[in-house]
Amino acid sequence: MKLENTQVQMRKGILEFCILEIIARGEAYASDMLEELTSARMIVVEGTLYPLLTRLKNAGLLDYVWKESTSGPPRKYYTLTTDGRQFLEELRDTWEEMATSVGIIRKGRPGPPAS
């Protein structure tokens, strides 16, 4: 088993969450998202980002507007829909639960019994 494959799968699993977090702060342009993800050491390429944005849009979680650019063609800026904000809130809850669970496991402490 290659470490690289597991790392890629872990990144893919949280990429959607990270993209929604970026867009939640305000209108976001895809290139700016790529730059922020890369600076946070989330290695993402356009070929991964654009299909994911399309899928999120088709699911009703994102919307976009075209805006004129001073340096080229119009740009597509993404925003969260009401459903997208609710979805992100639920992902945040899931993230907190998972982070807590992983922390417990890594420290070797038993958690409360399952209900």
Automatic annotation (TrEMBL):
**The protein's name:** PadR family transcriptional regulator
Transcription regulator PadR N-terminal domain: residues covered: 19-90
- Family matches, as InterPro entries: Metal_resp_DNA-bind_regulator (IPR052509), Tscrpt_reg_PadR_N (IPR005149), WH-like_DNA-bd_sf (IPR036388), WH_DNA-bd_sf (IPR036390)
Please indicate which superkingdom the organism of origin belongs to.
Answer: Bacteria
